[in-house]
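Lab channel / #folding
Pinned by the channel admin:
"Please post every new chain as: sequence first, then the structure tokens as a reply. Keep commentary short and put observations after the output so the thread stays searchable."

First post following the new format, from NK:
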Amino acid sequence: MRCKHILTMTLFLLALVPASTAAQAQQWVQLGCRDVDLNVERDVIPVGVRDGRFTAIRLRASGNAVQMLDLKVVYGNGEPDDIPVRARIREGAASGPLDLRGRDRAIERIEMVYARVPNWRGRARVCAEGRVAQAAAPNWVQLGCRDVDLNVDRDVIPVGLRDGRFTAIRLRASGNAVQMLNLKVVYGNGEPDDIRVRNRIPQGGTSGPLDLRGRDRAIERIEMIYARVPNFRGRARICADGRAA
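Reply from TO:
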């Protein structure tokens, strides 16, 4: 019996893990609140968050339950989005996520239409929250690799991706650690960019992101200067990745 109880609790805790992880991945911020008269059937929550971008909204009710019928979300560019709700928001509860059309939008205001309660003086407070658009993970692409002789102190990784545009690069080492000193990134228009590195890249590790001057550039080649190891026949493979704009 005890084993059965432990197994039940373990399965319950495992079931909570995905929900907890998903909740942490979503960030909700309050956009605004409005005290509404339930003897009136419509009201507006002004937002004006033109620099915030959201993928969904949800409504919270306090003081009384609210029978929400429809919403009109007006975006920062003046474009409206009619969202049929038809849901009763219990006092102290939320409506659940309401996805925005086109997603990732700035919001100007939220116009609410809810069920009127004739001749009733009840009031409620309705608050709107926005789900913040998550920044996309950086998109790294391999630009090229070079097998280098650690008894020599410089080499070049040809790239030639004139049609690719990048905001940063990073270097990866395999076979041996490499003490990288400096880089010269030559852009597609022939302009050079000297990047001081002074970093030991461990075998199997990376240099970390190295931002490009002016950002959003096409790369022709990467010239490397690294610490020479005299009389050492060791070799390493260095690969360069670009963070796509």
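NK: Residues 6-24 have pLDDT under 50 and may be disordered.
TO: also worth noting, The CA atoms of residues 9 and 15 lie 10 Å apart.
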